[in-house]
Fold these 4 entries.
Entry 1:
Amino acid sequence: MRNFFARGRSNMQFPIDTTTGDDMTDIAGKAKETTGKVTGNDDLKREGQVDQAVDKVKETAEKVTDKVKDVLKKD
């Protein structure tokens, strides 16, 4: 098994499938951030923070889309 927590590794992969479920990206991001903090791996910590931010953007976009659909249905 590869060392997922090795320092200095760009393009690091985390062994969690972040493509399933609405909350998985956020959960995986929190796990990456925490693991990065504990291991002193700043790249993994930042990657986790980015994953969480992406999840929030996706959630906001979904909410906006739903609102637009609601408004268009009222006409």
Note: The CA atoms of residues 5 and 39 lie 7 Å apart.
Entry 2:
Amino acid sequence: MRVPLELPPAPRYQVTLEATAFAAPRRVRLAVEGVPLGAFTVTPDGYRQYSVELPGALLPEDGPLWLTVEAGIPESPATRGLSADDRPLSIALNGLRLSTP
């Protein structure tokens, strides 16, 4: 998933995702313009917050900053024998927050 963000200049931002995983832990990686920010494991036991730092030096001088969220290999409930639902699922994202520490 790629998200365009318009941010004012700052020394750094904290990027916080509130997420839960489908059926099994999922390795999630965040990047900006191809530069890795960090990775964490999202678990399937309810929504939790996960944070990484975004250095201000990565903010573009003009135009949006593109945040990429890679959430592992998706699986469908059908392949797990849970239902007939064949949609590929990985994580459920309840919120994305950017803040200055």
Note: The first strand starts at residue 2 and ends at 5.
Entry 3:
Amino acid sequence: MRDFLQINLNQTPWQAHPTLPGITARAHDVRLDGHPVIDTMMAQLGPQGAPWHQHETTCEIAYALSGSGMLLVGDQANPTRTPMSAGSIVFIAPKVPHAVTCDADNPLCILILHTLAAP
């Protein structure tokens, strides 16, 4: 463990996302003294975006670095739709279903942090 860490995601190779098809990511698990692991990744979404999924025990913070699309949250049949573009940041609680659609000619690149929810 440590109390300070600097990483450069631009120096990390792109890899296929481990569970979401069509997404490539540069990822690190950050471990700091006195804090749970923070899953940190830069994700490039393909034109198909990110399929519906949810995180059982972590909160997701997503910051759009470039591109544009739509965050879909909640009920798949009638989701809440929130536009995303460079500079947008969203916070998603654990167990909340969500997906992302991308504009075909301008897919999103997103910085994502997953951290454990409060007990």
Note: The chain has a mean pLDDT of 89.
Entry 4:
Amino acid sequence: MIESRRRKLEALAEWDESILDDLSHFTPATITTPQVPTAVILADPSALVSAERADSLRQSGFHVLTVPGAGHVVHFDDIDGYLRALDEAIAR
């Protein structure tokens, strides 16, 4: 296991899930349109970005891709799916 992944997994093991209790009060930044080509790679389903928000981002010009079955840390949960999404974003 690479060192950065090991450290991330150690940190996640100590993470306090109660932080999620306040996410419903989180106000996301107002983003209208991307200033440069921008890909957003999401878990599917995403616990943090609703399907409606993902659609709104698409309509605003963001290239939104999903990795089915992945969790919040998409590149750890499904590296192959993440790389496929990244390849698609780069090819665009």
Note: The radius of gyration is 15 Å.
